[in-house]
Amino acid sequence: MDHALVQRMRRFGTTIFAEMSALATRTNSVNLGQGFPDYPGPGVVLDAAVEAIRAGRNQYPPGRGVPELRQAIADHQRDRYDLEVDPDTDVLVTVGATEAIAASILALCEPGDEVVVLDPTYDSYDATIALAGGIARHVPLVPPDFALRREVFEAAFSERTRVILLNTPHNPTGRVLTRAELTMVAELAVRHDAVVVSDEVYEHLVFDSRQHIPIATLPGMAERTLTIGSAGKTFSVTGWKVGWVSGPADLIGALTTVKQFLTFVGSGPFQPAVATGLRLPRAEFEQQAKELARRRDLLRDGLTDVGFHVLDAESGYFLLADAAPFGATDGLDFCLSLPERVGVVGIPARVFCEDPEPLRTYVRFAFCKREDVLDEALSRLRRL
Ligand code: PMP
Ligand code: GLN
């Protein structure tokens, strides 16, 4: 059938992550593309999921999420960030952060409303905004510092701005937005009476003593901010698809209405397991971030040694590396040929950008992999 797909979704096709993971399997390449760990999450969290299944918690959980997870999320927000959220009215458990993002945009945007996003942009944002009939306004962050600049940011706003869809720590640049940058976002949100939807899935994966600041903690922001987290990143279980969103009761109520008809509920037995995870001692979270920073160092130093020009990552799963020293003029072509040439998969950074120019020759490599896998990738890349 010609044009089975609605017009507004036609430009999206298959996600780059699915495409590149399929290419990795087909060519038996080391997959440093899609961001998922190849090491297990904390044993007690995995055990808790097995126990929940054995205990028969296999039917529909409550619509907003199981009570112990909502309580654990509320306690986490209070203990970590001094944010008071009521587990009964201010928290919604979702099928991954992806559904939290989709429910937010679908609940808050009328057709024609505008959503301000940072660029590079995580791939689900534009697609979700298009689904809602909204318009994405991209705010370019440019290398090497990817700083949020006032003139560029302000230019993205209009009288139709409804939502700022923020992402910090940021994929794919690894930036952790500073208090000064967040203050600017808060100021513009208030001026335009916009809701901030803040995707903070990498909140615990921050390196080198940097500090993640939830924008909801800034003065006057808790009442207009939805804060999104994900167990996939926090506990290295991306396949469980447990996410959550917290914020004021009226906004969470709006999201809950939409969420009912996206998935109704999800991830039943994994929800209590994630509650167990959120109650782990702080040292466990710090240990995980330290180990990830070591993997980053290994990949950064190795890629530099191979000849890439690498931008360091302050957080997250990814490094951006310029392939221009290898004669690359386009990162997409480079990434499509890399599996055949040396058996390694990366993601062309330009696919995250509205204007491909600043990152045209860059590749995003994931370092959330075992050290032997990173070593193998580096030894293959040395053949370049
Ligand atoms: N937001 C960002 C910035 C991400 O990188 C990802 C995926 N890694 C998601 C959202 C989606 O998270 P989830 O897998 O929990 O749906
Ligand atoms: N968030 C992961 C990434 O950026 C992938 C998630 C997905 O495949 N949708 O690689």
Question: What hetero molecules are in the model?
Answer: 4'-deoxy-4'-aminopyridoxal-5'-phosphate, glutamine
Euclidean distance between termini CA atoms: 43 Å
How large a portion of the residues is in β-strands, by DSSP E? 15-25%
Query: Helicity level, as a percent range?
Result: 40-55%
The 3D shape can be described as globular
Radius of gyration equals: 20 Å
The average pLDDT is 97
Low-confidence stretches: none
Plain-language structure description:
A hairpin with a 6-residue loop joins strand 9 and strand 10. The chain is globular. It contains 13 helices and 13 strands. The longest helix is centred in the C-terminal third of the chain and has 25 residues, at 282-306. The mean pLDDT is 97. A 7-stranded mixed β-sheet has the order 2-8-7-6-5-3-4, with helices on both faces. Strands 9-10-13-12 form a 4-stranded antiparallel β-sheet. The protein is an alpha/beta fold and 384 residues long. The relative contact order is 0.17. Helix content is 40%, strand content 15%. Bound molecules: 4'-deoxy-4'-aminopyridoxal-5'-phosphate and glutamine. The site of glutamine has 5 residues, from loops.
